[in-house]
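Summary for the steering committee. The consortium agreed at its last meeting that each partner would contribute one worked example illustrating the joint modelling workflow. Our contribution is presented below. We chose a case with several input lines so that the handling of multiple components could be demonstrated. No manual editing was applied between input and output; the record is shown as generated.
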Amino acid sequence: MRKSLLMKMTTLALSLLAGWSLAAQQKVTVSGVVVDDQNEPMIAAGVVQKGTSNGTITDLDGSFTLTVPAGTVIEFSSVGYVSQEYVASKTETITIKMLTDTQMIEETVVVGYGVQKKSDVTGAISQVKSEDIQNRTITSPESALQGKTAGVQVFSSSARPGAAPAVQVRGISSNGSSAPLYVVDGRITTSISGIDPNDIESMEVLKDGASAAIYGAEAGNGVIMITTRKGKGDGKINYSYQLTSQSLARVPKVMNAEEYFQYYVENGRFQVADLYEHWDFKTNTDWIGYSYENSLMHHHNLSFSAGNDRGNLYLSGTYLKNNGMFAGDADVYQRLTFMVNGAWKFKPWLEVQTNNQIEYYNARSVSEGSDYGSAVLSALQLDPLTPTVYSKDGELPQNMKDILAQGRRLLTDENGDYYGVSWFNPSENVNPHIMRDRSYSVMNGFNINGSTSLNLMPIRSLTLTSRVGYRFSAYDNYGYSLNYYVNQNAHQESIGLSGSSNNSIYYQWENFANWNQAFGKHFVNVMVGTSFSSTRTYSVSGSYSGKDDDLGVTQDNPLFYYFAYHSANATPSVYGAEPGYARKLSYFGRASWNYQGKYNAQVSFRADAADLSVLPKPMRWGYFPSVSAGWTISEERFFAPLKNVVNFAKLRASWGQNGSLAGLGGYRYANVIANTGQYATGNGLEYVLGYAPSSTGNQELKWETSEQVNVGLDLRFLRDRLTFSVDWFNKMTKDLIVSNITPSTVVGVTASPVNAGNVLNRGFEFELRWRDTVGDFNYSVSGNLSTLYNEVTYIHESLSDGIDGVGVRNYGAITRFEKGYPAWHFYGYDFQGIDPTNGNAIFKDYDGIEGVTSGDKIDLGSGIPKLNYGLTLTASWKGIDAVVFLTGAAGSKIYNCLTVVDYPSNRLSYFYEDRWTPQNTTGTKPAANAANWQQYLTSSGVVFDGSYAKIKQIQLGYTLPQKFTRKFLVDNLRLYASLDDWFTFSNYIGFDPEITGTGSGLGVDKGSYPTAKKVVFGVNVTF
Amino acid sequence: MKTRNIILSAVISLFALSSVSCSRMLDIPQHGVLDYNTFYQTDEQALEADAAMYLEILNGGGLGWDYWVRLCKAMLTDDFWAGGSMRGDNNDLDQLNEFRFDAEQDYVENMFTSYYSLVYKANVILGHVSEEGASDIAKMVRAEAKVFRAYAYFDLKTLWGNPPLVDHELTRTQRYR
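What follows is the complete predicted structure of the assembly.
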């Protein structure tokens, strides 16, 4: 109140002065047009007599008129442009050209519980801005991080519609989950796939220990902060539509009909007589072509945005429909999202903000990523001698007639034609269309999440914030599986029904205070706060299955495939209906000091307490400190001579500790007695329950801790046109929670998890960017490169052989978490070549024992790339803009698990070419009938180089001239076309070197849904 | 001014309240388990521990001793042949048939750990169901534990020759030797 009185007095005094001086001086009228660097008129640019309130703004044509005393200065300003001044000496008409501010406008970076100026940052924080996220075909925000920032690796285990990738920041730090923490507008969450990428303003990756330490116990794998769009400007309505056509990008080569038959005759499985009996000499089915088709994806987005200095509003709605490449509609993802962000300053000292996301989704998918029963794998393994369908009016082969004669169902397509059943291959991977049609399942779900905060500023230097974050999430599954018969490994006698319903409620409540104060040239910020979060999950699931000849439901009609219509003999089972809770309490604080923009230092501390299901009560608290400092060398006096070339140079270093929740939960540390079953005694049905200790117990279990040192250098050259930064980090994760350890086999009970493992991650990260303008032509080149060295440096003594990861069918484990090697490295026999006398594979003997034994298995490489890089080129000229984005990885390997020996399944042509035969004794691949195929499939013979480079986006856009579109009330209309994921450079023989397993199966290819190449057309309209 | 002060004091008290009341919410009890320190006291609990030994043979290792022990021993005889849809379909059993397995083979390893699971359960009973002042039922349960332990060692000795002797629940340091 006192303030506004002062304001009123000042204005009055000024106007009096102005009026007095006006009376004394001559006035001139300056009028004209203000244009921007593209020579387009600038609307609403400020035109003010400097130092006074005498001013105006430019109108729709960019023109203005202002009357000022002669000799005074007129200032022209607009956000994002360099202010210009003009001395008004006489009445005239002028044109003022405003140039965009190519200098780093003092950008701010979102850090935990606050905001920092980019020049004050002492940790390693990477930013991905909305221009890198816009207009891409990604459906999930995590995908936007790939290739745009150093130190972040994005792995996909599947590219099916709706799949979200796994993100790793600075390597794998754990034998459990390595997922980073996501924070959306202050709300902590583990899943961000429901947020449409077009609604994101920026994503910050807190990579080093010090910046992530403020999040304490969950931040060990890095923190990704997402800021959603907020309203700004006069009121803009934006609509965009993107149409994408998807098709299979890389097709692996498999054997054709003749090659297949010849191969398996050599193998001894078939005889030439079988060929005459079961093949028509014409069929040569392309199963991959039959399983995949071109498909469309639609993406609509409508948003409303407005804001002023008192408040803002942003409303957005998006509809996404992605019908996947797999033939038919069994892989579809539909999503509807809404975003409502608003803020208002009710009083000068009270502000309320709310950010909310509402999502509804619906998804269906086909089976993949498994050794047994995967539709994606079946397209590679089915023999080409079997046709895709047999006409219902034609002659069926004998094996199919026999099935019908037994009264079993053969699945048909929409015309009634029977799907082909192979006589040759009795494996569980059958005709892909049978695998798609034999069951139906759909998932529906919704999420309502967001955060609302109250900011109080009782005095200018203090801000108190109370923030509530929440997530209400629910999804349900419904499915049925049909009775059908294909072969003895793929059949079902009755109809099975299943359903489940799950919900979870999460809320967090945080209260923190930020105090900023300047003491002369020193500037200090102190933040303290507390946080509490709670999750409740609840799910119920059930199923019904028929027995023997009982159908399972009362009528064989999809309208009857529900629990209520089960047949009399069908048996139900029910699971769940048990609420689960997880809670956390934390205290945290941070202090930072800044001296004249030259020296920065920051220290932070967080204490986290876990609930009883995670850690024993005495070990509940974890403490995570950090310290960091920065020195802006370019502000020093001795640096002045270099300043024209190097505008900015900053050295920074940090050390911090974070924790991780991986491997915890479920009371696994507890030593309790649990039920082991029931045992019938006596003559009647008397049961006695058995009870025994469930595990050895470990009351000393504690948090996994990650300690990281980071040193970085930021440089800007040539008027900020060239920016370069380099970081070196060393991250040691200790006390990994290791479960399923096998203490000596004589203990007799499972061991509780212990803290017994260390992983080291070390590497360099480089980011380089060049931006320049030549007349009307703007262009930029940005690249990033990161190296990673990963090694397990310690693991519990009883696990000196390492922890086994994934295996191939029942041939044995192929990945291991073992001391001295990268996490989950590949492990198998060392393939030396082929024995020219009999075509068997030769393996090097390492343990001196005759024959091939488990001691001959060695390290075969790792699925973790040693090098990741990305390159983005942008250019724009008048209304045309273009982007080329490339990303790649090098130094990784892929374990190819697409081959089986149990059945005569089709194999990649790689194994057919140059195989040993009596005519080709110098062959490099084993003979079709070699005796040790199973060992070959767990050896370096099937480990391939996984390096690749992909041109992920080539986009060309054109913005229609504003003068033309404004006639139709359209402020901005941009049309664009793009080729996404179009070119892949790689030697890998499978579908896609980018899509392999994740976690303990990193780099293992078991046939996952491949990435599609896309042709995109899109339009962005702004009103 | 007044409104500002009221809201300010409300917020500060919220801060204090949130930190105090929430720490008790972290003590979430576990479902479906019994306390280790108070078990093995009553007759009924002794019988339940006893049943656990029978269940070990019935369900141990997921498929029970019928699969892991009896089948494995049977494969070593000439009464049984591995079979399968073709050679290599059941590689582990083929190995047992032909005596070309090593110590790490699935069946052999699971058999070994199954025996020691039974020994563990017997040791737990003998260590916790006290001998002094034992009721008839407790005495019976202790005797059965000794029988099961002896049965396991009988097989261990005949198949492996010289297995380690474990006659009590191993402590934390003893476990990893």
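DSSP finds twelve helices and 59 strands in chain A. The two ends of chain A are 39 Å apart (CA to CA).
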